[in-house]
Design a protein that fits this description.
The chain has 488 residues and is α/β, with parallel strands linked by helices. 48% of the residues lie in helices and 14% in strands. It has a four-stranded parallel β-sheet, with helices on one face.
Length: 488
């Protein structure tokens, strides 16, 4: 398995620190608002990466934080006349709920920053003692960027370049414009905690570094997030952790690409800003995931409502193929053509091999899906050619392979047909005199009556059967493997 390491800018053979186990951390949201689809792209991407690592046989420990104390939360609370804790609790709950609605698995560990103040203070004390940080007279504590000779490794930036335009803002007590806050002295009305430097709260970059070390240990195998976090957040995290514990921080850094909307950067001012909750009101989570996975996680993703509708159609086509394969198996008649069956078996094996190869090549979901889109086409061709004489084993394996691959990616195939209504029994009684209580058997009787009418060229009766079903919201679908009644 090869993974692109943002730090080294190349694909590397993945070798976990502990054989067979992966420790993975992905930065969670700052909980002051509903997440947008750009955020969702990152969380869905890493959910798929996690799922594939598990499918590949690794024991994965996945941690993701909730940043529940931050300037954005405090500002939102002040705007709404609420406490920061109330804002954070509301949007923490909403985030967890919408992630579950999007079929994103819960993390194994979900620490909240406000519950981890002790470990953060401990890390800051270690940095001060080692000469990597200093306490200012106003109660702030800063990390000294120039004390870390490896600073810039994660993002590829050089200190001299960072100095261009750097300045010390009013109210800041840092010694160097590049230094960043580890601890912020309390301001009136803000949440705060006691510390050796007075009442205050942690800096954003401090939170993740301390939580990674506490719950996963350092170094970890994979640290991920959106590309916008590479600098300064991930760079600053890494600097703190490396200087505090001298063990390295993360062996592999992974970052997802930006999400665009119709080719433009998503922005409220452009009217193209959509929350995940808004999108899932009218579209399935499976279709959104399918759309996102057709672009490699590191590449920019262009979202549009047309593309999402296309993903819904693709999803229905895949689900229809799986259902048709299973239905053909249960209605198989006659001797199967061995050559046709061998072709389907070969196509299934080829798709499975290509899927695995793509996923092992830096989680290339676009290529992995393309392999199964091709198999769906070949499976439909097989069903057309085989008619009712399908090879039961070949068709079953193909159906299981398609559904299984999508399940690994977290794409739930829809149930494309509801159970036939009980009212069909009354129609069957009127049309063919069926008096039983099995809806499926009634459907078979109706289809048999229609087939007899068509064979006898009794078009009026055949049309009457069709019309009565249409009045119930049902239709007859004729396939190479036979006919069936389904919802119109």
């Amino acid at each position: 398995m090869k993974i692109y390491n943002s730090k080294t800018h190349k694909k590397e053979e993945f070798r976990p620190i502990e054989e067979g186990k992966v420790r993975m951390y992905v930065c969670g949201p700052t909980v002051y608002d509903n997440i947008h689809i750009g955020n969702a792209r990152t969380f869905i991407s890493f959910d798929v990466i996690r799922r594939w690592l598990v499918a590949a046989g690794y024991e994965v420990t996945f941690a993701q934080n909730l940043t529940d104390v931050d300037d954005k939360i405090i500002n939102r609370a002040n705007e709404q006349g609420r406490t920061a804790a109330e804002v954070a609790e509301e949007f923490s709950r909403k985030f967890i709920d919408i992630m579950r609605a999007a079929n994103v698995m819960d993390p194994d560990v979900r620490p909240r920053a406000t519950k981890e103040i002790g470990p953060m203070i401990g890390m800051i004390k270690t940095l001060i003692e080692g000469g990597y940080a200093y306490a200012a007279d106003n109660g702030d504590v800063y990390f000294s960027v120039r004390s870390d000779p490896s600073y810039g490794e994660v993002s590829g930036r050089k200190i001299d370049d960072l100095m261009v335009g750097a300045r010390i803002a009013a109210g800041e007590a840092k010694r160097d414009p590049l230094d960043f806050a580890l601890w912020k002295a309390a301001k009136p009305g803000e949440p705060s905690w006691p510390s050796p430097w007075g009442q205050g709260r942690p800096g954003w970059h401090t939170e993740c570094a301390a939580m990674v070390h506490r719950y996963l240990g350092t170094p970890i195998d994979i640290h991920g997030g959106g590309s916008d976090l590479a600098f300064p957040h991930h760079e600053n995290e890494c600097a703190q952790a490396t200087c505090a514990w001298h063990e390295g921080f993360a062996n592999t850094w992974m970052h997802t690409g930006m999400l665009l909307v119709d080719g433009e950067k998503m922005s409220k001012s452009l009217g193209n800003f959509f929350t995940l909750e808004e999108v899932l009101r009218d579209h399935s989570a499976a279709a959104l995931r399918l759309l996102m996975l057709q672009t490699h996680y590191r590449s920019p993703l262009d979202f549009s409502w047309e593309r999402l509708e296309g993903a819904e159609n693709s999803l229905a086509r895949i689900a229809g193929t799986v259902k048709n394969l299973k239905w053909a198996v249960t209605h198989a008649e006659g001797a199967a053509d061995a050559e046709l069956a061998a072709g389907l078996v070969s196509a299934t094996e080829r798709a499975s091999a290509e899927f695995e190869a793509c996923m092992n090549d830096d989680f290339n979901t676009a290529g992995a899906l393309a392999a199964y889109f091709q198999l769906v086409t070949e499976a439909n061709t097989y069903l057309d050619q085989a008619g009712s004489a399908v090879d039961e084993e070949a068709a079953t394996v193909c159906a299981v392979s398609i559904a299984g691959a999508l399940a690994i990616l977290g794409v739930k195939l829809p149930e494309i047909e509801e159970p036939l209504p009980v009212g069909l029994l009354g129609v069957a009684a009127g049309l063919v005199g069926y008096t039983g209580d099995d809806v499926d058997e009634a459907a078979e009787k109706i289809l048999a009556a229609r087939a007899e009418a068509r064979a006898a060229k009794d078009w009026a009766r055949a049309d009457a059967i069709r019309d009565q079903l249409r009045d119930m919201g049902l239709a007859i679908e004729d396939t190479a493997a036979g006919s069936r009644i389904k919802h119109a």
